[in-house]
Write a structure and sequence with these properties.
The protein has about 200 residues and is mainly α. About 40% of the residues lie in helices and about 5% in strands. The protein contains five helices and three strands, in the order H-H-E-H-E-E-H-H.
Length: about 200
């Protein structure tokens, strides 16, 4: 959003004198002023949220350092291997399971949270997995903002906005082919993007 704001401001300045003399409004200037104000407000809101998250994170970190005891929770999809990982790292005997052939999802082998002491200090929290994770509805074009590795290529694509899906002249797709971006990460982004696009199309159903 910070990248787009200067472009929006510059566009408003270029239109401000079209079709009239000094002091007259150019076509589209009012709409641009509104858009600039909304973008600035959104940036301020996000920066405020990030500052609050940092404050809470620093407070929790200070509390952990004071207690001198680290607690790590493993969270993820059912049958992702959370209990298996703990067994492999620490020799625990936690029960594990296989993927169901019928529904092609993991079975809920771990059915309760268990806090396990670790050698050398600290605790590990083994948690039940989840089969589905519902996410908040959002404009699909904003999904790419959650991938920091895409940021250096912002504004280099042929089309704007670019979803980095299959557009010709996409700088992100080119970077992935060159090995500069993880192909696996890009594929997972594409899966999430298609789900987000479908949810966005059906948001009024």
């Amino acid at each position: 959003m910070k990248y787009r704001l200067p472009r929006l401001v510059g566009l408003g300045q270029s239109l401000s004198r079209l079709g009239g003399g000094i002091g007259t409004r150019g076509p589209g200037e009012t709409r641009l002023e509104v858009d600039r104000r909304r973008v600035r407000k959104r940036i301020d809101d996000l920066e405020g949220q990030l500052a609050e998250l940092k404050r809470q994170r620093d407070m929790r970190r200070a509390r952990r350092e004071k207690q001198d005891k680290t607690v790590v929770a493993l969270v993820g999809y059912t049958n992702a291997g959370k209990s298996t990982l703990l067994n492999a790292l620490y020799g625990f005997g936690l029960q594990t399971g296989d993927v169901s052939r019928k529904i092609e999802r993991g079975r809920h082998t771990t059915r309760h949270c268990e806090l396990i002491p670790l050698e050398g200090g600290g605790m590990a929290l083994d948690t039940p997995g989840f089969s589905l994770l519902e996410t908040k509805l959002c404009d699909p074009v904003l999904l790419k903002d959650g991938y920091p590795e895409f940021a250096p290529y912002e504004g280099q694509c042929r089309f704007s906005p670019c979803y980095h899906l299959s557009e010709p002249g996409c700088a992100v797709l080119k970077a992935a082919r060159a090995g500069e971006i993880s192909q696996a990460r890009l594929e997972r982004y594409h899966l999430l993007l298609k789900k987000a696009q479908e949810a966005w199309r059906n948001r009024y159903d």
